[in-house]
Design brief:
The chain has 495 residues and is an alpha/beta fold. Helices cover 38% and strands 20% of the residues. It folds into two domains: 231 residues, Nucleotidyltransferase, domain 5, CATH 3.30.420.40; 239 residues, ATPase, nucleotide binding domain (Nucleotidyltransferase, domain 5, 2-Layer Sandwich). The strands form seven sheets. Strands 1, 2, 3, 5, 13, 14 and 15 form a seven-stranded mixed beta sheet that branches. It is globular.
């Protein structure tokens, strides 16, 4: 048996996998986010361990025989967070999370201090990454910065409590802006730009290799062998790719959650930072991946439900699906930039726009425009990946938005690639983490990383190519016009 532990922002998920690739048990425990000031997003690392032990107790009680046969543990985790430890490995302050925006000024500082940043790290400096967070701490909490002996990513703090070892992996470390992504090792140049040294970083171990064993006292408490292997593990998106079997160049997935992610495997380092493409290490040796990220995806549909008075997403989708094909040409266009945008614009001031409203526009037209606008945003992201040399003909569709067959078909029509859905796509990072543990225990990649069964396939429809291409061109022209305008002040809440 192999245990996958996925440390998300809102919950801890556990999955128990047998050596036939079948899930034998699951458990979860909730987490909360603290936002003490505008733009801040923090969590107490102690809460991660409390939630882990809670989920472990649940899973152990539900599947005691399977639990006792665990031979390996893998971790998947929210990326970019900063856990700061002193010399005694005590946490110095709450962890600053991936969606914390306070370090926007420090991004410019880092870019000036490290002119080679984009070439080495494969990414532009953005507040979501770890390095600007440390510059913020150095500026605003100098005593904490001076006391910092070790910087760990969230899942690697859990690993420290599991094994006593300070280890990370290339896929997660690539999201810090301190890794030489091509070399899959720390960059002394980028660390120095933040006033840090290699000695303050965990050692780097490949995701599918053994990185330690379970602490003896914890093994006794959990009823496990102290020889249980803990894998190098992975950041959440790379772990999810392992979970759906995206291991070869050109394979990837399209995730429609709060944000939207387009992930494609590469056989070598292919950066395109000018278009805000993320170039990271994959969770397998000798492989990398590119990601395009849009900040509002399925969340745009939830927003429009509230904005328009729709009962919920299901009801809105039913209204959209009732539209006749000839009605779609007259639907408004929607720019889905409700929270700014990353790929390809790197524009924190971008805003949402409806264009082309008339007296004949209905809520169904608006709902269609939102679905289409998110698909157009992903088309921009795919174009940025393709500009860096990526080729893709098929993508797995995952995340909450993937439950809509209508949206899946629209994605296929817009992106001009086949979109497939899997029978167990919600297992995500926990399944990938368990698979990494299996490989760390000696499992062969070809056996372990098999693709889950395909439940349905959506191929591009030829008759939709021309009308969608025309609307996509107008969509892009609208954003270009918006970029030339000064940003509007944020709306105030009336009383």
């Amino acid at each position: 048996m192999y245990l996958g532990i996925d440390l998300g922002t809102s919950e801890i998920k556990l999955l128990l996998l047998d050596n036939q690739g079948q899930a034998r048990g699951r458990a979860s425990a909730p987490l909360t986010v603290q936002r003490p000031q505008p733009l801040w997003s923090e969590q107490d690392p102690a809460s991660w361990w409390t939630a882990t032990e809670q989920a472990v107790a649940t899973l152990r009680a539900a599947a005691p025989e399977a639990w006792s046969q665990i031979r390996g543990i893998g971790l998947s985790g929210q990326m970019h967070g900063a856990v700061l430890l002193d010399q005694a490995d005590r946490v110095l302050r709450p962890a600053i999370l991936w969606n914390d925006g306070r370090s926007f000024a420090e991004c410019d500082e880092l870019t000036q201090a490290a002119p080679a940043l984009a070439d080495i790290a494969g990414n532009l400096a953005m507040p979501g990454f770890t390095a600007p967070k440390l510059l913020w701490v150095r500026r605003h909490e100098s005593q904490v910065f001076d006391a910092t002996a070790t910087v760990l990513l969230p899942k690697d703090y859990l690993r420290l409590l599991l094994t006593g070892d300070k280890v990370t992996d290339p896929s997660d470390a690539a999201g810090t802006l301190w890794l030489d992504v091509a070399a899959r090792d720390w960059s002394d140049t980028l660390l120095a730009a933040c006033g840090l040294r290699r000695a303050q970083m965990p050692r780097v171990v490949e995701s599918n290799q053994a990185a330690g064993t379970l602490r003896a006292d914890l093994a006794r408490a959990w009823g496990l062998s102290p020889e249980v292997v803990v894998a190098g593990s992975a950041g959440d998106n790379a772990a999810s790719a392992i979970g759906i079997g995206a291991t070869r160049p050109g394979e990837g997935f399209l995730s429609m959650g709060t944000s939207g992610v387009l992930f494609v495997v590469n056989d070598r380092y292919r950066p395109n930072p000018a278009s805000a493409v993320h170039a990271f290490c994959h969770a397998l040796p000798g492989r990398w991946h590119q990601m395009s990220v849009m900040l509002s995806a399925a969340s745009a549909l939830r927003w429009f439900c509230g904005f328009s008075g729709a009962a919920d997403e299901t009801a809105l989708l039913a209204e959209v699906q009732a539209l006749a094909p000839q009605d779609l040409a007259g639907a408004p266009l929607f720019l889905p930039y409700l929270a700014g945008e990353r790929t390809p614009h790197n524009d924190p001031f971008a805003t949402g726009v409806f264009h082309g409203l008339t007296h004949d526009s209905t809520r169904a037209h608006g709902g269609y425009a939102v679905l289409e606008g998110v698909a157009f945003g992903m088309a921009d992201g795919l174009a940025a990946l393709q500009a860096a040399g990526t080729t893709v003909t098929e993508l797995s569709f995952v995340g909450g938005g993937s439950r809509s067959a209508y949206w899946a078909q629209l994605m296929a029509d817009v992106l001009r690639v086949d979109i497939v859905r899997h029978t167990d796509a919600d297992a995500g990072g926990a399944l990938g983490a368990a698979r990494l543990a299996w490989m760390a225990d000696g499992g062969e990649e070809t056996q372990v990383c098999q693709r889950p069964a395909v439940s349905d396939r959506f191929s591009p429809r030829a008759e939709r190519a021309e009308p969608l291409a025309a609307r996509l061109a107008r969509f892009r022209a609208l954003y270009a016009q918006q970029r030339q305008l000064p940003p509007l002040p944020p709306p105030t809440q009336g009383r």
